[in-house]
Amino acid sequence: MAEFGAIGPGFGYPWSPAAYAAAALLVALGFLSVKAAAYLRTEEARQRLRLGGYLAGALLVAHQFSSTAHVTSLSRVGSMLLYAMAAVMVVWSHRVPDDGSRPALLIATGLDPRSLRERLAGAADTVAVYRTDRVTDELRELETRYRLILVVGDEHDPRVKERVSASGLSRQIPDIAEREVVVAGPRQFKRYVAGALSRLAIPKSQIHFKSGQKV
Predict the structure, then answer these.
(1) Are the C-beta atoms of residues 205 and 44 closer than 8 Å to each other?
(2) Per-residue model confidence as pLDDT tens digits over 96-147
(3) 22: Cβ contacts below 8 Å, ≥ 6 apart
(4) The pTM is what?
(5) Is residue 35 domain-shared with residue 55, that is, in the same domain?
(6) 145 in any annotated domain
(7) Does position 70 have pLDDT exceeding 80, yes or no?
(8) pLDDT tier at 5 (50, 70, 90 boundaries)?
(9) Assigned domain for 98 exists
(10) What is the rounded end-to-end Cα distance, in angstroms, of the chain?
(11) Phi-psi bin for 127: left (phi > 0), alpha (psi -120 to 50), beta?
(12) Domain co-membership, 179 together with 113
């Protein structure tokens, strides 16, 4: 952004004082975006912010160096709008490639303990949050062996709902934003957890909903 803002008018459409002010604003926003990226929860969000900054600078340069021949003010405005729409579409559709190394988080209820055991035994970096009405010896064993996080109580219990809410999940799994999240259980349970994940700004590309016993 700073490089784009440093380009002076040499040819093409002459810059007006307003154009210089806009360039200075873009440079300032560029520096702010670098600082703000450090506070975002996910790498995808950070890359989207950086990409938006790059495209904004490129838009300024494209507008500055566009040919003045047979170009009216209205057509310039139209071009700017088209560039802006393209930039928004690129940023919105941007995804971080998954290299398969991202750890997983399973949030589930109503699973057969054998399915739960198979999932936890098959991936050492998987963390599981499991809601159950009552604790069995098998679940206690999984809790001890695989660090299963048990949420015990009725699904309508406020204390249980808090454990699988946005605040509860972020407290129990601080690195939740860096994990692939698998949600399994009845539709109402999945809808509630989906809302919590949305409030945590977990990208939809990292969330997977499962039905049945296979997780």
Answers:
(1) yes
(2) 555 557 899 999 999 988 889 988 888 878 999 999 999 999 999 999 999 8
(3) 60
(4) 0.57
(5) yes
(6) yes
(7) no
(8) very low
(9) no
(10) 45
(11) beta
(12) yes
pLDDT of residue 186: 93
Nearest CA among 27, 190, 13, 215 for reference residue 114: 215
Residue indicated by tokens 């490089």: 3
Rg (C-alpha) for the chain, rounded Å, is 25
Q: Kind of pairing, strands 149-152 and 180-184? A: unpaired
Residues contacting residue 122 through CB under 8 Å, at least 6 positions apart? none
> In terms of domains, do 155 and 89 share one?
no
In this structure, the answer to whether residues 12 and 74 fall within a common structural domain is yes
Q: How many residues does the chain have?
A: 215
Q: Are residues 111 and 51 in the same domain?
A: no
Q: Specify the amino acid at residue 138.
A: E
| 43 within domain boundaries | yes
SS3 31: helix
What is the domain-level CATH number for residue 180?
3.40.50.80
